[in-house]
What we know:
Blueprint lengths: L1 E9 L2 H31 L6 H11 L14 H23 L20 E6 L3 E2 L5 E4 L3 E6 L10 E6 L5 E8 L13 E6 L3 E5 L4 E3 L3 H4 L1 H12 L6 H35 L2 E5 L3 H4 L5 H7 L1 H15 L2 E5 L14 E2 L9 E3 L6 E3 H25 L5 H13 L19 E2 L5
Parallel strand pairs: 8-11, 11-12, 13-16
Antiparallel strand pairs: 1-5, 1-7, 2-6, 3-4, 4-5, 6-7, 8-9, 9-10, 14-15
Helix pairs in contact: 1-3, 2-3, 5-6, 6-9, 10-11
Amino acid sequence: MRLRYNFRIYPDPSQRQALARLFGCVRVVWNDALAMRKAARKAGLPWIGGGDLQKICITAAKRTPEREWLGEVSPVPLQQVLRDLDQAYQNFFDSVSGRRKGRRMGLPVFKSRRDRRQAARFTRTAFRLPGDGTLYLAKIGKIEVRWSRELPAVPSSVTVVQDAAGRCFASFVIEVEDAGQVLPEAEAEIGIDLGLTHYAVLSDGTKIANPRWLRRRAKRLARLQRALSRKRKGSKNREKARIAVARQHAKVSDARRDFLHQTSTSIIRENQTVAIEDLAVRGLARGRLAKSVNDASWGAFRALLGGKAARYGRTVIAVGRWFPSSRLCPCCGWRNGTVPLRVREWDCPSCGEHHDRDLVAALNILAEGIRLRAQAEAASAGGGQDEEMVAAGLADTRNDCGGRVRPGEAIPTLAPPATYDAHAA
């Protein structure tokens, strides 16, 4: 299993200049290689392989007056950026052919010198950890690192990242064994209903408040943006104002990331099975609540849950987005009609129970997640289970439209049969 550990680094002024030179060289090599492949395709020439690109864009380019400054930096990040270009093309081809799931990937694009985020990757031959609390990078030197914890193993690579606010980070990739990572088995199972009024409502009645990170700093960001708009383009004062805006956005991003990590870790540690709704986040982010949906970052939260569940031996079940979680009575199964978002509570006309909309959704998501897990286990067991139950599970599986079939996630299917109310319909 691969893990990534990020640490803040503090290069001195000369090292910042060396990093800026490295970032520029990485960008130029990427653009040269991409331009060559585009020109070859336009001319109908064969595909240029990664080895040929390395000979042309790095080795031979260093001998030319126009690119001789490529020899001032370590060749390892330049070679890695060509591998990144090959991976970008492979992602595009896999996405077009259908081998890669998720959103459609586009062709690689040219890198701009105006991009505020820069990165360069070093492999083991170009960096080392001397043991004195610093990080040594080839042709850059020893850089001070703010270590927040120890690395569990020797890193295979490190990526130096500079964000829009001018901060620098070292991102280490660590190969760890799965053994020893699994947590003791827990008895609790939880269902999660994500929202905007509360960030999450759990099936045990816990309500997690929505911090609204961007809304908290909206006034300060507006003031800084107004100050930025008044500065003359190209001036040093405008650059200072831009960095001030970027730092505020960085604070929002850091606070959001810290909240998501703490919340997801707490849920994974305390529960053996987590059921969560498979929301269409990209679609919701294009609606009238786009700003709030993007600020909530539901997609990142679910990705963290899935990654930590795989690491610690837990199970995350994704319930289909069309499952009517907020309209089913968890007591009797009666299905309510269309419930507007402004209605936060409702009474069941069948059993008379008074329900909180979000808590009902969490309870129903948990129940549906348990049903999906049992169905998947019965289908995988095959002949050892009752034939009718296995056949029903396989029928639902075959009728599923594009459901995910991977460890840790059950197969989303249609909602179970429910009792319809004639007056509500």
